[in-house]
Amino acid sequence: MSASKLDLVLRLTNEEEKQAALTFQAVQNDYLSAEKDLKQALNYRVEYAEMSEGLRPGTFVLIQIRAARSFLTQIDTLIEHQRAILKSKHAVVEMRREQWYLARAKKKSIEALIASRRKSRLLADEKNEQKRLDDLFVTKVVLWLARMLQNFLQDAYNCHQLELVNDDAKYYWPRYSHLNFE
Questions:
Q1: Contact (Cβ atoms closer than 8 angstroms) between residue 107 and residue 17
Q2: CA distance 144 to 149
Q3: Using an 8 Å Cβ cutoff, are 172 and 152 in contact?
Q4: How far apart are CA 21 and CA 151, in angstroms?
Q5: Rounded to whole angstroms, what are the CA distances from 141 to 137, 152, 156, 178?
Q6: Residue 91 — pLDDT band, cuts 50, 70, 90?
Q7: What is the rounded distance in angstroms from the CA atom of residue 21 to the CA atom of residue 156?
Q8: How many helices (H) and strands (E) does the chain have?
Q9: CA 73 to CA 65: how far, in whole Å?
Q10: Exposed, middle or buried: residue 48 (CB in 10 Å: 0-12, 13-18, 19+)?
Q11: Are 27 and 89 in contact (CB under 8 A)?
Q12: What is the pLDDT of residues 111-170, one digit of tens each?
């Protein structure tokens, strides 16, 4: 896959991960709101139960106690309903969290793939550059050796033309005086 396609995939994956994070956050906020509603209902039940227990016995009070118990039953039903809602919202939160984790993992794997490809490309470029430098060095060495050989042969030809002996050749070949001709 080309670098531009991978960049496009990464951009789309980033968007997918952001969307998953936003969805997860919204669902989590909804869950926290439902949890708060449940706590309010539980607190209201406790308060109402305490208030209804403080009534003194009597006929009118008996009617109030029955009404209070009926209302507490309705509150208990509301609390159970709220717990069921909270349980389903918790399942949705966990599902969205998993989707977000998967989107984030997908994004990180694509980023790792891009980094790996970039590193491979850099290594290949360095290897090619080193090969070019090696080829340049070999070429320069070969040219230098060819010039040295040409100069040596030219000097040998000039020496031969002058019909010099080995000892005199050292005098006429000063750049080759370190060489042993014997």
A1: yes
A2: 8
A3: no
A4: 76
A5: 6, 16, 22, 20
A6: very high
A7: 84
A8: 3, 0
A9: 12
A10: middle
A11: yes
A12: 998 899 999 999 999 999 999 999 999 999 899 988 988 888 887 777 666 554 455 555
**Is the dihedral angle over the CA atoms 113, 116, 121, 124 positive or is it negative?**
negative
Q: Are 156 and 172 in contact (CB under 8 A)?
A: no
CA distances from 111 to 12, 100, 104, 118 (A): 12, 16, 10, 10
Token pair 């031969």 in the structure block, residue: 160
Q: Which residue has the tokens 């399942």?
A: 91
18 backbone φψ class: left, alpha, beta (φ>0; ψ -120 to 50): alpha
Q: What single letter denotes the amino acid at residue 21? A: A
Tokens 């449940």 locate to 38
> Which tokens sit at 140?
């320069």
Strand ranges inside 13-61, DSSP E: none
pLDDT tens-digit map of 36-76: 999 998 888 888 777 777 655 555 566 777 777 888 889 89
Q: What angle do CA 9, 15, 18 make, to 5 degrees?
A: 140
